[in-house]
Structures are given as C-alpha cells and as structure tokens.
Amino acid sequence: MEHDQRFGTQRSVTLPGPLALDGGQILTPVTIGYETYGTLNGDASNAILICHALTGDQHVASLHPVTGKPGWWTRMVGEGKPIDPARHFIVCANVLGSCMGSSGPATAAADGQPYAMRFPVITIRDMVRAQAMLLDHLGVRVLTTVGGSMGGMQVLEWAATYPERVRSAVIVASAARHSAQNIAFHEVGRQAIMADPKWRGGDYYASNDPPADGLAVARMAAHITYLSEDGLTEKFGRKLQARESKGFGFDADFQVESYLRHQGLSFVDRFDANSYLYITRAMDYFDLAEEHGGLLANAFRGTKTRFCLVSFDTDWLYPTRESRSIVQALNAAGAAASFVELSSPFGHDAFLLDVPELFRVVDGFLKAGGL
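Request: output the structure for the sequence above.
Response:
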C-alpha cells in the first residue's frame, strides 16, 4: 500500500521476523504501517523517528485516512517547522499492537482469523524492537528519536536498548514508569471496555459490532487526565447547555459533559477496543529502571546520546517531577542532558497544542546537533 498524502507517503511493510517478545513469544511475520516525509541523505544521517502516543498513529503530518483531519503533530512537523522534510528524513510508525496497519489484535493470525485476545502480550520495548526492524528495512542505522507521552517512553527505551543507534533523543511530557495513579486510570478504562456486553471476550470482529460504548467511556476517562483543572474551568466552568427544558435528566446538561461525550464517540470510529487494552497494559508494565537492575541511571551508562527533556507545569498525568527524575538519572550516568519546564494552561495535551516555546526548544536542540 502506498499513496501520497500532501508531502507524506503512507506505507505498510510485512517483515519476516522473527520478533522475539519480552513475554517469551515469537511474532512472525510482523506488519508495520508507517509514513515517511522527506529524503534520506547520502550518509543516512538525517533520519528522525517520531514515536506516537497511546491513541496516536503514523499520520503525524498528513490527512488522516479515517477522520480526514490534519495529522496530530502538524505544529511540529512540516515545511519550515522544527522537524522539516526539507532537512530531515522523517519516519513515524504505527506501534505494534495498534490498529492502523501494524500487527495487533485485529490482524489475522495463522488460521486466518483475527488474533483478538490471542495476540501476545506486548511491552514498550517490543514496540521499539519492531521499529528497529522497520528502520533496518529502510536502511537507517543512526537516528534521532522524538516523542511525547507514550512516545517519550519509546524514545527512552530506544536510548536504553539501542544506544549506539540514537544520536539525539527528545522526550516531551513523559515518564520512565507509570505511577499507581496512572495504572488506576487505565484500569478504569479497561474495565469499561470489558464490561460492555459487545466486547464478547474480545471476539467482536466477525459481527462488526464492537464495544463502542465501553471504548467511548474509556476515552472519556483518559481524556480528563490529558487536561488541566484550570484549562477545563476556563473553557467550560459550570456552563449549562442551551436546553428548552430544565428538568433533570441524563442528557448532557453541562457543556463539559457534552465535550467529553463528543471525545468518546469520535474516538470509536478510528480505534480498536482490543488495541486499547493491549497498549494501555504495555504502558503500565513499562519501568525502565526495573529493566536495568532497579536503577534508572544504569539504563544510560556510557551512552553518547544527547537528551532533551521537556515538561509542562500543568501536566498532572506526567508531572515535572517525572522528568526531573529522568534528568537526575542521566546526570548520574554522565549523559549529556538538557531540561526545561514550560508554562502552559493545557495540561498533558500541551505537547500537541500551540505552545511556541516548545517548538523553539526542539528546533534549537535539533539544530545544535547538526539537524
């Protein structure tokens, strides 16, 4: 599959594997949906891998084929922007376990039927290993990695697992492991999906009748964590919907209710419920320190990678203290690291929204490294 979308090219490749997973299983073959922008230069030194967040995909800067909306990071990626196809060869791959072209619960197993819940349990490191296979296929050996939220987790994993391949790493609004609160919010979402009668233990593909209600509630609960209290108050406060009747009911009486319901309903058109279960679990399992003897600094010993970390002062999902702990580990490991906390009213979602200072930080960091 290949077709142009503005300045990006959407592709899918099936690689023979095998891909050895952290859970002990082997996945073969492995299909990866991805997009590329720009051209790889002569010495293959201008490659940038963008790692997407939980509900993101490879359509980072081109029109989404399902929603028709612009890519999720067009503020960062594009002509004249910090990540620029005129200078960089940009790759964004749909993560393993997702539902936009990469191997996941909805793809066919060896018997021709969707894996559903037979798909093997995956980790963030498994996602990174699959990306490494793709980059090998593309002829990219050394690269810069950039990502926010779960994308930042992948960037950290890249730097720890393939230190010789990562020249620079940009981690935005992320963490080296999930807190109990993070896990708790994810579990609420998973239970909402599994409590939907249409989930059917994950076997809903043949009926083409997915657990949309459960997935919508999961998205609503998660979306609250992406915002800030001040942002919600400023945008909605306690404003009521315009209604002819003021009688009590279970319709959306408050504007914030209507907003969340819209977020949930629009999400189910582009995402798979089983993928949501698998990817949130992968995020919850992620603990980079545990992977390296319980000490985060061990993940970066001897690294030559340059690091840039950015947090936001209103992000309570991945608060600034999470970034500071990563910076402290990098300092202890003797790694080159810069860090800045930016002010924004947007909460965790700030990395996706209009925060000009973020773009200046990333642009300066990349150019300082020769990109």
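Confidence is low (pLDDT under 50) at residues 1-6, 244-249.
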